[in-house]
Amino acid sequence: MKVQISIRGRTYTVRSDEDDVDLQAVARYVDDRMSEIAGRASAGLDEYTVAMLACMNIASDFERYRRSINEELGVLDRELAASEAVLRAAMPEGESSAEAAGE
To answer: From CA 5, how far away is CA 28, in angstroms rounded?
Structure first.
């Protein structure tokens, strides 16, 4: 799919093989981050520097999110293992989980 997006007043035609990605929303997010960085800069930064700083900020956000998700998945894995141990301990000797489920 081809989509026209606008970032910092420039129009780009981009192509994506992923149907579930809203490229307009992604472009707005990048544009907002770049505008935020350009607005905070004390000296006038060129567009390349603004783009590079936005890229680093977005990558930093992603890395924090990735770590957070991995930590949450670790907690869920431990909780699942503990629940499985409790269930196995509660099952009568010799009964399989399929039998307990009525299969």
So the answer is: 8
